[in-house]
Amino acid sequence: MWQALYENLEQTVAAILFGIGFTILLLQRNMIRKIIGLNIMSTATYLFLASMGFIEGRKAPIVMDGVTDAAAYINPIPAGLVLTGIVVSVSFTGIMLALTVRLYRRYRTLDIDQIALLAKGEDLP
Amino acid sequence: MSFVKIALLGMLIVCALGVSLTRNLLTSLIIYMAYSLIMAVIWMLLESPDLAITEAAVGAGITSVLFFVTLKKIHAIKGDRDHEQAQK
Amino acid sequence: MSKRRSDWAQRPQARFLRWMREGYGALDDEIISAVAQPAAQRPDAEALEEHDRLIGTHRHEREMALDRLANYDLQRWANTRGRKALTRLYVLLALLLGASLIYFLLDTVAYMPRFGQVAVPTNNEVIARYIEKGLEETGAINIVAGMILDYRAFDTLGESTVLFVAACAVLILLRIDLDDQGQPMQQLIAEGSDDRHYEPKNDRILQGSAMVLTPIILLFGIYVLFNGHLGPGGGFSGGAILSSGLILYLNAFGFQKAGRFFTYKIFMWVSFFSLGFYGVAKAYSFYMGANGLNSGIPLGTPGAILSSGLIMPLNIAVGLVVACTMYIFYALFRKGGL
Question: What is the ipTM of this complex?
Fold first, then answer.
């Protein structure tokens, strides 16, 4: 198993990063850190996708010197998919940060537990 | 497997852990920015220059600027008032 | 919750606690006698029902009070040591969950096809087709650009729409609201202008470097935007670079000067025209049979700046949407308006 993991090092790192992002999402109570954790998770997914398209010894899919042989270039589809993903992740980051600013304006705190208590109208412990 | 690639991937994990373990919000944001830039270099190594340029411009640039301006808004940057309150 | 409480009141332990604390029978008798006294002479159905109701409510209140008393210790534990113990348990469980997630993902990764091999399932005939016919059919040297703006153009249209919708959502969330008289709310305005107060106004260094850097950044953004079909780059990265130049200008010279060339109206019209142009151009392309068949748009020489048909205009449209969206994100976060 270790040999296989070492050979697939990009995907291994992507899996570890996904787990770290998920744990940040669970453990951190600060909203900003939660958003960063979500971003780390999405980046890990992109790394996994992009590593699936890589082929050893081939070049980036930009046609050079008129060579249009499929054996000369790497897989362009993961690049296109990840390009879409990066831009979508920026838009959701923007919306979540806007929501954070609104929550801060209302409750004057970033702690999600305190916000949950304040929203229910209870006192802080 | 080149040494550079292993070092970059290791730095990626260190940065991801550092985001969670630092106390200051600003520090963790700067670490996240470094994470994005390392990611851009890794995409260059994976032969995807399109992704590298987009990640460098969007991930490390615009996303970080949005985070910084949010921190400014919630007065979490040092030297600002009620700094301690926002640190909670 | 209430169900569990009533269960608790029926339990032998609760009855024992009640018996221990005394007073149950005595107080009940008092209540009964107090209520029953006037009605004792002439018992009638209504009054009896009234008794039962009264006794019932009193008993219920007493039970609730006793119940609270019995739960007091538990509650105190839950608010102090119990909270800490539960938090620790939660952290432990979360770490365990994260670790097991990583373990299962790694277990899967170990069975994935080896990295960098030719014989992976993703490397199939679709890719061969894209690479072999891409240049011929789309005229784009950058195969990724040809793919996302020609073969899979609807995907990109949806993505631009997502960006636009996100900008509208942030607009709704962060725009400074108007009160009943149509004036901006004073409290929010004060909060917004407070922001500027903590920064040096008219910083010479910032303004000087912005004067030099903004044109270069904008030029580079335009270069990336116009060369999307010839090399790495394209709409998204070019738009982001353009918007970062605009943001630098805004930071150095303030909202008043930036507002001279960028308003809500311009944002709306630019986004509308870009998305509309995109939709119309791709609808035309697909109506004519897609794949560049007889669309009447010359593909030009591969490698020239004016080549590859619709890809460059589409890149510019996407780039304009991205630039406007990112700039308006920043402006809204910063001030709540333009």
Answer: 0.87
